Amino acid sequence: MIDEDNLKSIEKLHAMRAEGILSDEEFDAAKRRILNGTSNRPRTRPPTGRPAQEPGETDYLAWAILPLRRYAQFTGRSGRKEFWLFLLGVNLVGAALAIVWTADTNVLGFTGTIGNMAFAVLIIGFLGILLPYLAVQVRRFHDQNRSGWFALINLIPYIGPLIVLVMMALPGADGENEYGPDPAEL
Q: Which of 84, 38, 96 is nearest to 60 (CA)?
């Protein structure tokens, strides 16, 4: 019994032969490959610049660190899950370091050694996270079929980051766009 995909493929072959794209020999060879199940057409999508190991649907930690693996990659698209889990992870780590920093502060406002180390890690971490944060924002704008230069809205005092945060919550464009394939389909 021929499955529906193979039937559609053979119909396309007939149309290509009728248009003169395929010769009779090429048509017969391709039809035999389809019927034998040895079609040379790939069943999966070719690599698209996304990491080889895409996280599983419920692997939230892997989704949160995916922007770190794509550290300064400003091309392609990123879904909402990647952005929001990264933002959640950054804020949780930042909050934990801020708690350690403030907990080691005495009544007079002097911070102890552990608090100073937590503050230093917080500042260095902030500087280290800045580039992947901008990169994932640019990829989110690409997912919405917008230019990555929209990230400059962050520079508007007071309301700029709020506008960008709202824009990050908007859904991406369906299907492939000029920036690459839909991350929801990968």
A: 84
Does 150 share its domain with 67? yes
Q: Indicate the number of domains in the chain.
A: 2
Looking at the domain assignment, is residue 65 inside a domain? yes
Say yes or no to pLDDT of 1 above 80: no
User: 161 with 75, same domain?
Assistant: yes
Contacts of 103 (CB under 8 A, 6+ apart): 115
Could you tell me the residue range of the domain that residue 24 belongs to?
A: 4-36
| Angle CA 141–144–145, to nearest 5 | 90
pTM: 0.68
pLDDT band at 186 (very low <50, low <70, confident <90, very high): low
The one-letter amino acid code at 138 reads V
Is the separation of the CB atoms in 177 and 140 below 8 Å? no
In the predicted structure, residue 72 carries a pLDDT above the cut 60:
yes
User: Residues 163, 169, 175, 178: what is their CA dihedral angle, to the nearest 10 degrees?
Assistant: 30
Question: Using CA atoms, how far apart are residues 53 and 118, in angstroms rounded to an integer?
Answer: 32
Distance CA(88)–CA(90), nearest Å, equals: 6
